[in-house]
Amino acid sequence: MTMSNTGGRRRPPTIHDVAREAGVSRGTVSRVLNGGHYVSPAAQEAVNAAIRKTGYVVNRHARSLITGRSDSVGFLLTEPQEKFFEDPNFNVLLRGCTQALAAHDIPLLLMLAGTEDERRRITRYITSGHVDGVLLVSSHSGNPVAEELSEAGVPLVACGKPIGLGSKVSYVAADDRDGARDMTRHLLSLGRRRIGTVTGPLDTPGGIERLAGYKEVLAESGIDVDDDLTVSGDYSRLSGERGAERLLAQVPDLDAVFVASDLMARGVLTTLERAGRRVPEDVAVGGFDDSPAALASSPELTTMRQPFDRISAEMVRVLLAQIGGEDTAAVILPTELVKREST
After folding, report:
1. How high is the mean pLDDT of the chain?
2. Which of 50, 52, 48, 20 is CA-nearest to residue 33?
3. For the residues of 56-123, what is the DSSP string, one character each?
4. Which of 39-43, 76-80, 99-103, 252-256 holds the top average pLDDT?
């Protein structure tokens, strides 16, 4: 830092200090800070070296007045606040997106919109230009936030394919249907034939696709898809407990359960233990996500691994490309069967 003329107090380095250290004009430094267009490699290296030496930090407010950008991104979760703290997947995604954006020196703002009033307030905040783009997590059908932001021209990437929006919105998703197929095949390979499922919410892409994959494999195997074998959940542990209670009441000879999330699967395990059913001897249990909940279970869960690190990185990559003017894009990533003690 540079010494000021008052009392020896240090003042932060300025763009002029960087220019002087690099031996270039202030305009060259400015062009480097705004993307490096029309700057020679030698000049860019000199400016970057001067920034490191002087400790210069970009004044984001001043730059935003020039560029019209906020230099920040929103992480929007359209779920009740308690779900953010209960479901470990949200925290894993948030951490991954934060780390991916940090590589670009872009801060991430967490936004929770679980009620209609919160949705309206946050949509108004976003469309007023306070963030350059949005990473949208957990979009239910009938929730208009994705369409509203898209129509307002806000760069947007959803985690999971937004229902009913086609190619209007970019998204990054795990291959939920194929993952469900793999898990159901695994349970069948163990000789299980009365395989129930606790679905995710059927107004979300993950809930719909995982149920579809489960049904497809049973049909291909010549097993009737009995309605009694299917109960719905909401990805919470409590809904897993209640779902398993309904399955046991409806299908006393139940010998396996495919559960659409690890957190719900922990609830299923609780109910099976309460009912005196051994896992996996009496009932095999498979989850989905490979979240921290899978390892915290007893027994540890066999599950489908979602590549959360890649999902986060791809969401950020696609969003930054869209902020830079590129078209919408869709990315679907494979899942992986992870075998543990519950099957």
Report:
1. 88
2. 48
3. ----HHHHHHHHS--S-EEEEE-S-HHHHHH-HHHHHHHHHHHHHHHTTT--EEEEE--SHHHHHHHH
4. 252-256
> Are the CB atoms for 153 and 187 separated by under 8 Å?
no
The answer to whether 83 and 114 have CB atoms below 8 angstroms apart is yes
DSSP-based three-state secondary structure for 136: strand
Read off the pLDDT of residues 221-263 as tens digits, 9 standing for 90 and up: 999 888 999 999 999 999 999 999 999 999 999 999 999 999 9
Under 8 Å between Cβ of 264 and 239: yes
Tokens of 173: 């998703």
- Dihedral Cα 336, 176, 257, 204, nearest 10 deg: 150
Beta bridge partners of 195: 256
Q: Which residue has the tokens 């984001």?
A: 60
* Neighbour-count burial for 223-262, b at 16+ CB within 10 Å, e otherwise: beeeeebbbbbbbbbebbbbbbbbbbeebeebbbbbbbbb
Cβ neighbours, 10 Å, residue 55: 12
Give yes or no for a contact between 312 and 99, defined as CB atoms under 8 angstroms apart.
Answer: yes
Could you tell me the pTM of the whole model? 0.77
Tens digits of per-residue pLDDT, 331-343? 999 999 999 999 9
